Amino acid sequence: MALAIRDVREHELDAVLALNNTAGRSILVLDAVQLRYFYDHADYFRVAEIDGQLAGFLIALRDGGDYSSPNYRWFNEHYPSFVYIDRIVIANAYRRHGLGRIFYCDVNSFAEVRVPLLACEVFLEPVDDVVVLFHGTYGFQEVGQQRMGEHGPQVSLLAKDLPSYTYVRDTYLEHGGLPDEPWLAGRPTLKTDNTTKRRLAGERRS
């Protein structure tokens, strides 16, 4: 089995959309416009490819964006710097193969050289003990709860401290930035708008 975790490609968006919208009630449905927003603005948007087949994806965003998710906005109001995991989806045929942990290790590696905190949420209605346990064993702690809209589900807001960030900040970010290595690079398709320019500059000052 050949596994690759890599940045999403534009021609794969239809397949990603179909995978998202058949994932079940724990994953919020997207339309093409919403997915395009992620393609244009998400700091982390990677897919898992197994033997040439799309097996899953994970989308995450840094702080300071205009994303309208109430959970993302909650973290923006409470923390100055973080990477927020918006969603992770694994295709049915590839579940129980450890892809979730592989994705979380990958996004953790992406985040810890940029920010001090990795954030996400889990649904509490209905509660999924497997999902709750997964996040707990991976080092997440509950930092709050809220309801997603007047009639939406209650969610547990989770955060994980990234202790490696302090070393990276003091050694690299405050002294010229990260080394020019492929595994440290951001998404090549990320738009260089004012927000992105501010973030890129901020990586030198964080």
TrEMBL record:
Residues 184-206 are annotated as: Disordered. InterPro entries: Acyl_CoA_acyltransferase, GNAT_dom. It comes from the Bacteria. PROSITE patterns: GNAT (PS51186). GO terms for molecular function: acyltransferase activity, transferring groups other than amino-acyl groups. Keywords: Transferase. Residues 194-206 have a biased composition (Basic and acidic residues). It comes from Dyella dinghuensis. Residues 3-163 form the N-acetyltransferase domain. Gene3D superfamilies: 3.40.630.30. This is GNAT family N-acetyltransferase.
